[in-house]
Design goal:
The complex is a heterodimer of chains A (about 270) and B (about 260). Chain A is mostly helical. Chain A has a single domain, classed as MetI-like (MetI-like fold). Chain A is about 85% helix and about 0% strand. Chain A has helices spanning about 1-40, 50-60, 65-95, 100-115, 120-125, 130-155, 160-165, 170-210, 215-225, 230-260. The radius of gyration of chain A is 22 Å and the shape is globular. Mean pLDDT of chain A is about 85; it is low at about 1-10. Chain B has two domains: about 1-80 and about 155-235 and about 245-250, P-loop containing nucleotide triphosphate hydrolases (Rossmann fold), CATH 3.40.50.300; about 85-155, no CATH class. In chain B, α4 (about 110-125) packs across α5 and α7 packs across α8. The chains are: A mainly alpha (about 270), B alpha/beta (about 260).
Chain lengths: ~270, ~260
């Protein structure tokens, strides 16, 4: 018990040290950005203060970014949910059925390797310019990591846990709820994070190429008119969305590692 | 009357599975009386674990029949508890939550299952660790959790597949001793698989010696050392005689097992 208590103390020290160094890294990044602005001039590269000002102005004060911001978030949420649902089912089915895995795993991995942007015209033909096109293209990106990570997680559930479940006569539902789900929870969090990140990539890409609304669209417009403060402001908002959501995922992941002693292997992704 | 009856039980694994066409056990017939503690010893790969899975209802025999308390075994059942060799604790559940798992799945109310679990945790000597997660426990303590999880169901029959197989010698002797006092209290019928001759004699009323694959019963050795027993039995004259007897039976089988 003493050893455990000691470990807990040491771990919380490591965590706070880790957090401090992360905050330090962000501060350094902002200072570097500011220095670069000073070097090349604010007309070439708007600084952090001006950028945050443009972002706040766009979303809150003047609101020119607000409708696009909401539209992008809606598309992101939609594509994330589709990716999680479709990828989750594919992952669980392929993870638990060796025969199906033998057929579809290479297909899954190889398709994942293709730069998905080359299939964008197909999505455009089918869905045209609406939000459903963004959702579909985002989900297309997010489904693969979700399916691959969950497939491997289900495959690696220890046989002994299945034996325990059987010897205690668990129903199928109890087995999924109380054994399979907790077993894959840690990799599931990683899968969700990747699904989110790639769905976001897909949504922004489709907005950059062809959309009537969204952060990608106004970024594209700002790029066309070389409106540097707008470019930086929109980019900043996109980065903040990605970072905030990832912080939440990392938090859950660390909680699991800390409390369950489950370390999350992200190898290969 | 929770007796275990095996009648001409044989098991050959399908040719399309990993162990293609392997005959694991052949024509095993045995009887374990109510409240009796019987160990099965045999060389590695003699089908001990297969036999155990069949009795537990986790694997179907190719031929023959198993009955427990007079009813044929067709699958896992509530009056039969199984303890596995590998660490089977759930890492996402505390000791208490692990122990109460089976009760929870069978709809026992929160208060009742907590109370029963705490009693069993005390019985296996884990008091004070109720809220600890398995990754903070030693291998021996994790195995106690697994035993407690099975005991709390109050099964009439305990099936134990080398439950101390992964532990160091001292720990397994101490846990064996605890198991003896638990078995004396609960009066369960126990079928215990082990590859340790000393452990088998220390714990059992009878020791069933199996042959090399395909596993058949070679002989049954009665252990007439009076109970209650403790670790003091080790080194006693009777213990050494029995140990020698079992080893004589086992030696040729272990040798032929090595030559495969």
């Amino acid at each position: 018990m003493m050893a455990a208590a000691h470990d807990t103390r040491r771990q919380s020290f490591v965590l706070s040290y880790r957090n401090a160094s992360r905050i330090g890294a962000v501060v350094l990044l902002l200072l570097g950005w500011r220095a670069l602005t000073a070097l090349v001039g604010a007309a070439v590269l708007p600084g952090p203060v001006e950028t945050v000002g443009v972002a706040t102005e766009g979303i809150i004060v003047e609101g020119w970014m607000l409708a696009n911001f909401v539209n992008t978030l809606a598309a992101l949420l939609g594509s994330f949910l589709v990716a999680v649902g479709v990828g989750g089912v594919i992952g669980i089915v392929l993870g638990s059925r060796e025969s199906l895995r033998a057929v579809f795993e290479p297909f899954l991995l190889n398709t994942y390797a293709v730069p998905k942007i080359i299939l964008f015209p197909v999505f455009l033909f089918i869905f045209q310019f609406g939000i459903d096109q963004k959702i579909a293209f985002g989900a297309f990106h997010g489904t693969f990591p979700m399916a691959i990570i969950l497939m491997n997680a289900v495959r690696e559930i220890p046989d002994i846990h299945r034996d325990v479940a059987r010897s205690l006569q668990l129903s199928r539902w109890q087995n999924v709820r109380y054994v399979v789900l907790p077993s894959v929870l840690a990799p599931l969090i990683v899968g969700l994070r990747f699904a989110f990140n790639l769905s976001f990539l897909g949504v922004i890409l489709s907005e950059l190429f062809a959309a009537r609304s969204g952060l990608g669209l106004i970024l594209q417009n700002a790029l066309g008119s070389v409106n540097r403060p707008y470019i930086m402001g929109v980019t900043f908002v996109i980065v903040v969305i990605a970072l905030l959501v990832n912080f939440v995922f990392y938090g859950v992941q660390r909680y699991l590692e800390f409390n369950w002693g489950i370390s999350v292997d992200e190898g290969g992704m | 009357m929770a007796t275990i009856e095996l009648e001409d039980v044989s098991k050959t694994y399908d040719a399309n599975k990993r162990d293609s066409g392997v005959e694991a056990v052949r024509n095993v017939s045995m009887h374990v009386g109510s409240g009796e503690f019987v160990s099965i010893v045999g060389p590695t790969g003699c089908g001990k674990s297969t036999l155990m899975e069949i009795v537990a209802g986790l694997t179907d025999p190719t031929a023959g029949e198993v009955t427990i308390a007079g009813e044929p075994v067709t699958g896992p059942r509530r009056d039969v508890g199984v303890v596995f060799q590998k660490d089977s604790t759930f890492p996402w559940r505390t000791v208490l939550e692990n122990v109460e798992f089976g009760l929870q799945m069978h709809g026992v109310t929160f208060d009742e299952r907590r109370e029963r679990s705490r009693d069993v945790i005390e019985l296996v000597g884990l008091s004070g660790f109720e809220d600890t997660y398995p990754n903070e426990l030693s291998g021996g303590m994790r195995q106690r959790v697994a035993i407690a999880r099975t005991l709390v169901m109050n099964p009439a029959v305990m099936l134990m597949d080398e439950p101390f197989g992964a532990l160091d010698e001292q720990t397994r002797i101490m846990l064996g001793d605890e198991l003896l006092s638990i078995a004396a209290k609960t009066e369960q019928t126990t079928l215990f698989i082990t590859h340790s001759i000393n452990e088998a004699i220390h714990l059992s009323d009878r020791v069933v010696v199996m042959s090399a694959r395909p596993g058949q019963i070679k002989e049954t050795v009665g252990v007439d050392i009076p109970r209650p027993r403790s670790t003091d039995v080790f080194g006693s004259e009777r213990f050494n005689d029995l140990s020698e007897r079992v080893w004589e039976l086992l030696k040729p089988e272990a040798e032929s097992g090595l030559q495969r």
